[in-house]
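Holo prediction — adenosine-5'-triphosphate.
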Amino acid sequence: MKKSTRSLNSTLFLLMITILLFIAMYVAGMILFGGSGFAKPQMFLNLFIDNAGLIVIAMGETLAMITAGIDISVGSVTALVCMVMANSMENHGVSAVTAVLMALGIGLAFGVVQGFLISYLDIQPFIVTLAGLYFGRGMTAVVNTEQIAIKNKTFLAWANAKIYMPFGSYSGKGKFHPAYIYPTVVIALVVVLLIILMMKYTKFGRAIYAIGGNSSSALMMGINVRRVKFLTYLLDGFLAGLGGFLFCLNSCSGFVEQAKGLEMDAISASVIGGTLLSGGVGLPIGTLFGVLIKGTIASLITTQGTLSSWWVRIVLSALLMFFIVLQAIFAKMSMKKK
Amino acid sequence: MSESTAKSGFSFKKLTHMKLFLPIVCLIAVLLSNLIKTPDFFKIAINNGVLYGYIIDVINRASELVILAVGMTLVTAASGGQDISVGAVMAVAAAVACQILSGGEVSTTVFANPYALAVIAALIVATLCGCLNGFLVANLNIQPMVATLILFTAGRGIAQLVTNGQITYVRVDAYQILGSYFPGNPIPAPIFAALAVVIIAYVILKKTTLGLYIECVGINSRAARLVGLNSTKIKFITYVICGFLAGVAGLVASSRIYSADANNVGLNLEMDAILAVALGGNLLGGGKFTLAGSIIGAYTIQALTTTLYAWNVSSDQLPVYKAVVVVIIVIFQSPVFQKWAKGLGKRRTAVPSAAAKGGAVK
Amino acid sequence: MEQEVVLTMRGTDKIFPGVKALQNVDFTLRKGEIHALMGENGAGKSTLIKVLTGVYEADGGEIRVAGTDRPVVNKSPQEAQNLGISTVYQEVNLCTNITVAENLFIGHEPRKAGFIDWKTMNTKAGELLRSLDIKAEATQKLGDCSLAIQQMIAIARAVNMKCRVLILDEPTSSLDDDEVEKLFVLMQKLKGEGVGIVFVTHFLEQVYRVCDRITVLRNGTLVGEYKVSELPRLQLVAKMMGKNFDDLADIKGAHTKGADLKDAPVIDAEGLSHTGTIKPFNFQVRRGEVVGLTGLLGSGRSELVRSIYGADRADKGKLKVNGKEVRINKPLDAMMQGMAYLPEDRKMDGIIADLSVRENIIIALQAKRGMFKPMSRKEAEEAADKFIDLLQIKTASRETPIKSLSGGNQQKVIIARWLLTNPDYLILDEPTRGIDIGTKTEIQKLVLDLADQDKAVTFISSEIEEMLRTCSRMAVLRDGQKVGEISGSEMTQEGIMKAIAGAGKEETGNV
Amino acid sequence: GSSTASTATTSTAASAATTSTASSTASKAASTATSTATSTASKDSSVVTTASGLKIGFAQVGAESDWRTACTASVKDTFSEANGFTLLFDDAQQKQENQITAIRNFIQQEVDYIVLDPVTETGWDTVLQEAKDADIPVIVVDRQVDVSDDSLYTCAIGSDFKLEGDKACAWLDAFLTAKGITDTVNIVDIQGTIGASAQIGRTQGLEDAVKAHSNWNLLAETTGEFTQAKGQEVMESFLKQYDNINVVYAENDNEAFGAIDAIKAAGKTVGSDIKNGQIMVMTFDSTKAGLTDALDGSITLDTECNPLYGPKLQEMIGQLQAGKTLDKMTYIDESMFSADTSVTKVTVSGTDYPITALTQSVIDSRSY
Ligand SMILES: Nc1ncnc2c1ncn2[C@@H]1O[C@H](COP(=O)(O)OP(=O)(O)OP(=O)(O)O)[C@@H](O)[C@H]1O
Ligand SMILES: Nc1ncnc2c1ncn2[C@@H]1O[C@H](COP(=O)(O)OP(=O)(O)OP(=O)(O)O)[C@@H](O)[C@H]1O
Ligand SMILES: [Mg+2]
Ligand SMILES: [Mg+2]
């Protein structure tokens, strides 16, 4: 029986490994680039500031992936959300609050349509959301092909509202800079918390795991598979809308090429965090670490600062590969032990 | 019993025919829609000694996609995942070929090295990329989309590294043949390249049991192992093939523009290739596959793009139309929809086909 | 005394492409009765149940449930559950990626303030498992449990839901006697509480032990409904098969040749082991011999054969095949040595669901031949037809995907797959699971025939009687260790029981 | 050095007059910087290595084109370690969010200057505010930024894309006049990636000119996304729809290459003789490859878009170090190239711009 307890924890074990690898990587960065400010607390907080939108979007992605689906439309939804917000505020004088509601509405609309096609018409999620990807990007261009800077006072006030921390660091000139975050970070972390609670403590959350593990079994156990799937994509769409809003708070603009490839960031963050594309396995907290790990890798490269453009890409992927392979090896080892 | 066997055997045959039937209908529908705006869409003329016309464009431009779709179909069937690095691998192959031919110069008008050397080297590098993907997926059990994400991001970097971040031009007629015309032949050469790949793929699938093995592994790799199949090896092979084919596609694409544009060769083609596989009626979750379907899917996508150009849809809005058409096609192909459409009289829709599928997979 | 009716099905039709699975079938279930649903493989039992519980949509007929005056239409198992019908389907239908406790409670988890109360859920699950004597932990991942345990958990889940109707589709096929006993106690208890139970099984003894009534199906049509007391065993078999057949006839008498002890064993394992599952063991099988493996549920029978076959690579010990030492790293190596292995878990390890019956039959031989020597279409079709005929596989055609065959017929296809490779040594792990009595006897005969043809066979079954009929010798396992062998006069029901229970002589090394 | 257009230059050999002075101007600027920044090395030496060791963060768009690569190389060469700088280079891979991240990183690394070549014009308010709070001057290069408060960045230097378009159209006008063509001229525009500053400016230039000339007829505008393959595909489609195209206005060299191939494949010829059915190709960027085609006449006019920002940047930083205030916006010098000599200069808003007659040596002396 001891044997089995260990194997149950294999997901948790992998999560621990992932977190440890993250810490190891970060500490290595602090040692290597401590002089370049890598050890500053603000550097760590920047991981959250820069990725607040991605964190929320990746949460939705994780849910979709746990149902054994996928959502590759999130980047386009983000672009559309940013564009609609920017366009309506700047060109149509819409208030910031209304714009936010529009953003969430767009997310929900994507969720409803994609969820319906996936769950009630049994169309493959990849294809449905690929169409969503095309549609969102194209619609962004339909709304406006220009780059629109958001200058709405309320919106900029939200975007620039720093929340100072009780700690900080001294600059080279000896000046104390308190560390800070933006409201986006708070929202993102609240979302993460809510999703963690939902996945662990609600019937809906557990049903998501069940249908991801084996949808026909789940059906026979009396779960309304279609409804759960639909709601998952609905929530996923909503989170994409919300994430798009946070993304927009960070970039304060709308343009056609925005957030290109964001879906891959969301997917890889989920996977690094331990979510399986084949469904049934994954933890929201893991995804959070997935995002942080990707952010740290990027941050390490920027801090290093001497690579040429192509080496940036290569090293970025090499580090990612190193990480994923290490994880895979640990996973294999834990399987063997069993 | 033998009687019922014979009878249902017949109806089953009809069903398999149905499988390709729908994708073909979709392709034809897309093509015919052109007649509204461009009545001479199907007109083929001889211009300058070569075939000229929209329909030729469709077939010609779809060549790379067809080549990729073949590899993508195999990868999908065996591993239930997709290789999203194919576009980047195309760029790598193009870069290698051009760099060898130009001997490191940014632009050249004579081959610095033999053409064959360049082609072979490009294909070898592309195949090695496939090996890396295959190793990660098959041996290390990393999920395909993420395993191939590595080359997806690194690939273009590698290509730029090879070409030193420049676009390398090979302004030699011989290099342009693969992307244009064989001397004296009115049919565009990429069509032959695609045709050759398809034929070779068919011969391999016909003459070996690779196809069956791939399906087995894709459906139930545990059971496949117990009947003596080497799941790892088979998955690996499909990725190698896919990498190789991406190399071929890269050569064609690079030959069209007689240069290696690391940033743009094969850009976004991976998504189209996956779409082709799905439009062909294949499940992206792996298992049974039809190569013909994927190929039809590839032509459908190119037909759609060409159509939208002919309709003067501005290319930044083109994705909207593409999305709508794709959704219509997949709804049309969805069994649930078909059932609903057929049994309009009946009010009930059945329980998800997932139940009938019986979750034996995974 | 006529009991109150809780459920009726009238004129049920169900048509699959190429098969009329049900035609005008009636079925009635009364309160507090155990009602056996009998029929050969592919007779339509599971289909009837799936139509009833909303997994399939019926093509005709109506269902009435006591308490509602209009016919009910279950669109999904969920609706059936809401009507108080709880079901254990034939293939275990649980989710292996979540814990045992969740599998038991999903859909009706205990909650506190709207949130799942994990503590209560785990405690309750623990209690439930203990009360049914299931050796699993509540917090364990279901996928880590053996098939038998999973089956018990599926039953536990079904009975734990407050229900008026309990449907059990071949629940006992992967259970051993002890477990079956526990199940019967449970069923009697529920019966006492007035639950109507539908029980599908191919074990006639079990029917006669617990059931009150029998409904017999044949080829998708209703043969009739009978009181158990009024339908003697032989007649039941005749009604199921549509001909007279004595399932009790001793088939062992037909078995003429025995093993020649002077021969070098075909299989000779010395100190083979697989860390974590099976301790070092010695094991030999000779030509013409059927050696049984017996032991309690989870005693490691499957693991033992898996380590011989290379399904789990043995990490210690030697294996000789026909006297020559061989290294087996993967199943293909074993196949090349002339071995064949019929796995216990049909759904996970056996069938390749979307492939046709033909492809499923030829795949092993094809794998053995290699990639570049494909069987011709004709060859493959002939092979498939031969076995469809030989094993009476009920399928719409040889091109039907195996997943749409009935459970028992799927099993036959897998057997055909291995027979086609013409092995010298067959490992059969629960080969008759879910097979109807007619075919079961056929398979037992087949096993003995194979032995007559000088093949070596290892036979695992939870059914002692079946083992006695086929085996010439048996190895006894306990807790992953081979603890002894029995043969000759010890080969009786009691002898085996004793050996399993621990009285068997300790492993002495070689046999 | 001063920042007027005539002296601020590039190493573009083709901008005939000022070539040889370029690098010395730049190093002078750097040494000026040195002398003011560090009190010790006050004598005016031209040895650049005694520079103050400024730490500069350069947030680059990516490496999406030859042009960009040349730009990166220019900046990297200028701010090399040998020249006494520490350059932190970040490649954003064409993603704005990466660039924002990089700037935040530079701020934590306490660089002395941030040089930003923005992916987009918009969306910089928050992060530039952070830079300002940290007292780090930001110099925007190439594309401009559109922020609610101009004080968020110190100064900007870039190309005037609208002017590029205007110059090209002025040339076309002059050319047509020189050839005495008064008939309708049919133009197709293969646009750049929609929304890119270069696309917006160049398209605007053309559209304005079309409005101003009653005989210019803009048949169609479609994006070729700045790539050869797309340029070819778009041109193929144009050729099938219109058989009277006279001028192709391709918004970069790569698109022009594709267009030329498509034209040839359709059985037509490219060249300046539009009276006799040739199709004239006008383009932008002036990369080596582009100029090669311009030399043989396939491309008739190639308007330069200068990527060599390094020296100019160094000069500006020197001035900033010296405590000077710079103009908010500086434009970099850009030339025009044609093998056709019928037009030698064009005038836009009162300023004259010479057309450089193209020779092989002009091409050979270019670095990209
Ligand atoms: N999903 C399906 N698609 C097509 N045919 C099916 C499907 N399910 C069952 N059948 C067919 O219906 C018939 C009845 O099958 P069913 O599973 O009900 O048999 P069964 O009586 O339960 O047999 P067993 O004892 O082997 O479990 C069989 O011939 C089978 O091939
Ligand atoms: N998939 C599995 N993962 C982890 N442990 C398993 C698995 N399958 C079986 N076990 C465990 O391994 C041990 C041996 O199981 P095995 O299947 O060999 O038993 P068995 O004698 O064949 O009995 P039965 O087949 O009736 O369950 C048992 O403790 C069982 O719980
Ligand atoms: Mg059944
Ligand atoms: Mg077993």
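READOUT: Residues C 45-46, 90, 169, 406-407 surround magnesium ion (ligand 3) (CB under 6 Å).
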